[in-house]
Amino acid sequence: xxxxxxxxxxxxxxxxxxxxxxxxxxxxxxxxxxxxxxxxxxxxxxxxxxxxxxxxxxxxxxxxxxxxxxxxxxxxxxxxxxxxxxxxxxxxxxxxxxxxxxxxxxxxxxxxxxxxxxxxxxxxxxxxxxxxxxxxxxxxxxxxxxxxxxxxxxxxxxxxxxxxxxxx
Length: 168
Hints:
about 20% strand; 5 helices; Rossmann fold; alpha/beta; globular
């Protein structure tokens, strides 16, 4: 398994905390933390496996820093790259667009040729709709720190085990 890039905003406190937990869960594996507030498209070419951390803002939107970065990646070919996405959302307060950002990101990179890995079952979540759902699964790891924080460590542990296999 090659070097893995873990991309997220170092300024987004909840996402940064989760990224740190994910980073530590990859015991003995080279995972490089990358700040999306300072990244250029060339950074994405350095990795064959990438993890993106993206909270869902407002009514199902990407945070500004991702919204501003994605147009710069329009011409980048992500063929043969494996990408996993984790996201933060609120199932109760935003049940109609829970973790939509996971779906937005997965679709963007899949359209650029990437293979999306790290899908998880819907069991244990209670929401109305999500762009993160495809074929009866989430296209990444949704985390709800507002309502289900006690489940976060176990979900991350299982997800990292899955990614370790899928990134091999």
